[in-house]
Structure formats: structure tokens, C-alpha cells
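ARCHIVE CARD
Drawer: 12
Card no.: 0347
Subject: one protein chain, sequence and derived structure
Cross-reference: see card 0346
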Amino acid sequence: MREVRILLAADVRRVPWRNGRGFTDELALAPDGASFERGDFHWRVSRAAIDSNGPFSSFEGFERVLVPLDGEGLWLDHGTRAPRARLRTGEPYRFNGSWPTTAELVGGPVRDFNVVYRPEHASAEVEVLRLGRRRARLAAEATTVLLHVPEGALTARVTGEEQAFELPTGATLLARSLLPGDELDLVGAADSTRALLVRIGPGKRP
């Protein structure tokens, strides 16, 4: 059965980083009953602040997509596993969670948006929408979608739902059990409105 709901501040769970160097605000995690601490989750969507240079936590068996939300971005160094990468605000970057990864801030602290998933159980794509006050109609193209608003505000309507959802800054819309052909109709409410659309689909079992 389709589920569409808004996740506000009260729904966010603050979780310490695995390496003890900071905290992550966990927006959503699946499947129901799984937990980050046990490591039995298939995917997790979260946001965090990086205020100093240093190593990332290891996520063996997971893929990661990271998007800087503000600031001047950062460099990620993966040692011999991949070239050093410059991450700019609003640009998604995908990497293997098991790679040794160290962050170097370019010009000061940044907030970031993270998607972590097990490829055998889930797939994930992240699209950054610079909506402003425009209207956009987007295909869901996945059974589960999350729409997070880091700046501004918007109204979202999902195919088959009579109710339109108002998303202020920091809110997240979660829609599950979507059908082929379902769409999201978005209308920005501020010049600064940005959103991140996460499409989560089935994994590729070996």
C-alpha cells in the first residue's frame, strides 16, 4: 500500500558517527525494524555537518552518494583506490563506502547530504533541483522516493494523493510503494528553493 508522509524535525534521529568524530541526522532508513547500530539496514538517507578535516567512517559493503549543501565544498582523498575528488556545492558524488576516505575542507565548514545503500538490496540516484519559484513535474521512476528541502520551501503533490504537502526548510517527503507512471508535481515558494530528490529502487543481487 502506498505511503506518503512528511518527516519534520521531530522525526529526525541524531546518530554518532562510527568513528566518533561527529553526528549524523538520520532522515530515513529501511527496511522497517532495521537499525544503523546493528548494520542490518538496506539504505539510509541522512545529513551531517563537516567542520574539520579528517577521515570518514568506513561502510564496508555499501555504496555512498554525498552532496555538499553549502559552503565552498571539500576534497575527498581515497588513497590508492580512486583519484582525489573535488566536491562542489549541489553536485552529487558517488563512491564505495569501503574505500579509505579523508575529507579536506576547501574554505570552511559544510553541511552535506548522504545516501548509503547495499547494492544487493537497493539502488539509489540523487538529483539536485534548483527550483526557485518554478513549477516542475517529475517522474518518480522508483518505488520509493525522498524529497529533501535544504533551503527555501515548496509544495509537493504525488500522483493519486488528494492532499498537497507543504515542505518548509529542512523537511523531507517520503513516498513508498509507488507505481510505474507516478509523478511528483512541485511548486517552489521562494527564490532560494532547492531540493534533493532521491530515487530508491531494487538492488542487483549476485
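Annotation on reverse: The mean pLDDT is 94. The chain has two domains: 12-117, 122-202.
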